[in-house]
């Protein structure tokens, strides 16, 4: 919970986000055996404001399949599902878990909210329909126009900053940037299509390609053991290159170290990083199971340096970027706005400059800088055989439960793509490729404000001729009598003070010893910071408020001891 953290707020957010910075995108789940025929999402700030809801309980219906049991039961878009058989629904994951326990023909009581009135009715689960045969993926003028409209909507409402590119082979079909590369200047500097982003774990695809090139050249084998290069790593004699590539080595991920957010901001030598990995016990025995670890690709990057007798940056240039003509892809250093590199931001109800990882740290696991356009050209070159032989590419794509070697199977709608995602500091990146239709899509973001927004899911939906609901955002609501909310509030259980201040007619919360948090007005007494999942509800006398985050609720009183947890 953010208010319980004692260290400076920016550092806290860095720790929460950066530990995930190089995590892969999850393979989307298949349909559960208990089929309702609807899609749901969290109840966000805009939903509460738009529908006049009192709180963010339940999940909101975003799509209802034609002729499904949900449609026959009269469930419609914007209904809020609250209970299934009196089991409360508090998140999308919980909703999926609940319905996974039901089969076709099971009858339940379904409680939902419509027009702020609760309704309960009997509901019967149906059978999961056969997957619709995918239509041919395309990008015509109408689809381009809709994608551009999507980006403009996101930009106007300041929900994301980044760049989207769609390509086929060497040809760029769409390339558009939104937002800013820097907000710390006297005048904000807009991003453009040549602005360069830290791509985080997308770097792993590049690292895997270079490893396979070394295998093709005979300098390495997939069954080469790690002790040849790094004998001090625990279990190194039993860990193969193949295990590093597919995350079955059992090596502890250095990003999970408790003090990572401190030392990752400073220069670290290769020896420093290896020493940190050596200090951790293995998570499991080599080959025993799968667990994503950034240490695997850090070591693969070091292996490339040893075998090529040069830096990772030089190997990247000679082996990939020069070979296929990528002009804006290279190993990163300190961010340079003058070199058209973008800074990253956290959204705390406003854009706050993120801390910056020192690029001596991520190495082959996440240290590359690139543009969206360069990335789609790279994927085209990889799948068209301009970087690896057919045999090497086939081995690289050899998948176990959607996890291949440096690349993953990612499902959007009823299509399967190859790709990767990445997070580092405030950067959020995704790169995918459809092998049949040969489209590559990249979205590189340097700031995300809408936790529900998935640009790639919407773009692929449009390109696959699916009915796509574009995000609907309402103007920010002005605070009535904002000074009436200002003051110092306290909760005794947390032994914590929370200062509420008014700046330019907007409310900000200042947790003791931390940075400020912007609060968006949802209604007269209801405020949120959606990007942090924090809700504040004032009592009508504005002498106290409830702070809600996740399943926890804490009561704060103005100028006196709070009564603690509700």
Topology at a glance:
Elements: H1 9-18, E1 38-42, H2 45-51, E2 59-64, H3 69-72, E3 80-84, E4 87-88, H4 92-99, E5 107-114, E6 117-124, H5 141-156, E7 160-168, E8 171-178, E9 180-182, E10 189-190, E11 197-198, H6 203-216, H7 241-245, H8 260-263, H9 270-278, H10 294-308, H11 312-324, E12 330-331, E13 345-347, E14 351-353, E15 368-370, H12 372-383, H13 390-397, E16 408-412, E17 415-424, E18 427-434, E19 439-448, H14 455-463, E20 487-491, E21 496-503, E22 506-511, E23 517-521, E24 526-529, E25 534-538, E26 544-549, E27 552-558, E28 564-565
Antiparallel strand pairs: 1-2, 2-3, 3-4, 3-5, 5-6, 7-8, 7-19, 9-10, 11-15, 12-15, 13-14, 16-17, 17-18, 18-19, 20-21, 20-27, 21-22, 22-23, 23-24, 24-25, 25-26, 26-27, 27-28
Helix pairs in contact: 5-14, 6-10, 6-11
The CATH superfamily of the largest domain is DD-peptidase/beta-lactamase superfamily
The name CATH uses for the topology of the largest domain is Beta-lactamase
Strand order, largest beta sheet? 20-21-22-23-24-25-26-27
CATH class of the largest domain: Alpha Beta
Low-confidence stretches: 1-32, 561-566
Overall pLDDT, averaged? 88
Secondary structure category? alpha+beta
Report on the structure:
- There is one protein chain.
- With 566 residues, the chain is α+β, with helices and mostly antiparallel strands.
- It folds into three domains: 32-124, Pdz3 Domain (Roll), CATH 2.30.42; 141-463, DD-peptidase/beta-lactamase superfamily (Beta-lactamase); 476-565, Lipocalin.
- The strands form six sheets. The chain has an eight-stranded antiparallel barrel.
- Helix 5 runs antiparallel to helix 14 and helix 6 crosses helix 11 (312-324).
- The longest helix is centred in the N-terminal third of the chain and has 16 residues, at 141-156.
- It is globular.
